[in-house]
Structure formats: C-alpha cells, structure tokens
Amino acid sequence: AQKVTQAQTEISVVEKEDVTLDCVYETRDTTYYLFWYKQPPSGELVFLIRRNSFDEQNEISGRYSWNFQKSTSSFNFTITASQVVDSAVYFCALTNTGANSKLTFGKGITLSVRP
Amino acid sequence: KAGVTQTPRYLIKTRGQQVTLSCSPISGHRSVSWYQQTPGQGLQFLFEYFSETQRNKGNFPGRFSGRQFSNSRSEMNVSTLELGDSALYLCASSSAGFSGNTIYFGEGSWLTVV
After folding, report:
1. % helix / strand / coil in chain B, to the nearest 5?
2. What is the mean pLDDT of chain B?
3. Does A44 contact B42 at a Cβ distance shorter than 8 Å?
4. How far is residue B38's CA from residue A29's CA, in Å, rounded to a whole number?
5. Which whole-number Å values give the CA distances from A62 to A38, A86, B27, in the listed order?
6. Mutate which: B5, B50, B103, vs A, most A CBs within 10 A
7. Which residues of A are less than 8 Å from B104 in CB distance?
8. pLDDT one-digit tens code per residue, B40-77
9. How far separated are the first and last CA of chain B, in Å rounded?
10. B60 to chain A nearest CA, in Å?
11. Cα–Cα distance for residue pair B71/B56, rounded to 1 Å
12. What is the mean pLDDT of chain A?
C-alpha cells in the first residue's frame, strides 16, 4: 500500500517570506512518481511538478523549488519570496506503476500568504 | 491545447436521485480517472479508464460507476444519491495512465445533495 503524509495542515506567512511545504511518502515499489498540485478556490488541481523515483536531482522553477530525498522518503516544496497569489491548497501525490496504479494524495496544506 | 473539461460545474440534486458527470480529456489522451474530494476524506480515487476499459477501481460502493467512450470522453454516474455524496468530483487525463505520465485535472464538478 502507498501513503502520502503532509503533516502541516495550515501555514500562514507574510508576503516575501520563504515557505517550505513538507511531504513524506511510503511505498514498497522501487519505481514510482511523485507530484505536487496547487488547488485554488476554483477547485482545479494545477499541475506543478512530476518526479520519478530514479531522479533525485533538485528542481527549481522560478520561485518554486523541490527537494527529493529517497533516504528520508521526502519530497518537499519551497516557495521563495511568497506572494499573495500563492495562497491555495497544495497537494503532494504518489503513484506507482503497473496494472493497479492510481494516484494517492496527501491531505493537503492550506497556504495563506498575507500582504 | 484545450485542457480537461468537466460538465456541469455545479449541480444540486435531491437524495435518491441519480447524477451523471461528464469529462472530456485533453486531445490525444486515452486515460481518464475520477476522484472524489470531500473535507473529511480528502481526495479519493474512484476509477480509471483507458481505451474504454476500466483498469482500476477505488473503494466505493457500486452506486458509483463510470464509462469511457471511443473518443476518450468519460462519464461517471452516481445512483441513489446520499447526503454524503456531496463533494467535488475531479476528472484527470493523461496520455497513457499513471506510469510516468503527467496527470492533468479539470476544474471539477461541485455536487450538492440535499
């Protein structure tokens, strides 16, 4: 069975602060994929990143960066210089491979960025 | 290109009725999956269809069903609605399923059961 834990439920920061959203996962598979999605109030899940289990390189995209560490089964997401538009719920998700694969989500982290 | 399109966006139904939700995946994508999102349970997998065949199913009662058409469009149906079925239903599409593919979501259908 696979599991994703997002221990933080709500985070509130002031604009321009850096913020890190934590994600810890469990899986018995050696090949798997990790995702981060952003969900604004409208409801749509906006894709942010996909990482496979064999690629431990950190990734940076603008103000966003991701740190993947297999040794600790973590895939953390950092927003640098946060902005009000970053306010949303952020989900970490995991999928395995094979016939019965599915996307398993964490509970999500509500990020509020105050001006 | 156009994203994942879900209709209707909002709907209100009465207990005992049935509802059908529609999802048009991104052009060229053959896998469609459905999720239920509620405040208490979070995001839960309902089922996945690929080339008109259901490949995987989550732990939901038989009242929840789906199908996929030859053009990859998908519908999900919930019969004998219960108050607890009130949720955001999200559809996702990918080119070939979960393995190594990016999974894109639609805006969802907000269902309220009264």
Report:
1. 5, 55, 45
2. 94
3. no
4. 28
5. 15, 13, 28
6. B103
7. 47
8. 899 999 999 999 999 999 999 999 999 999 999 999 99
9. 37
10. 14
11. 20
12. 93
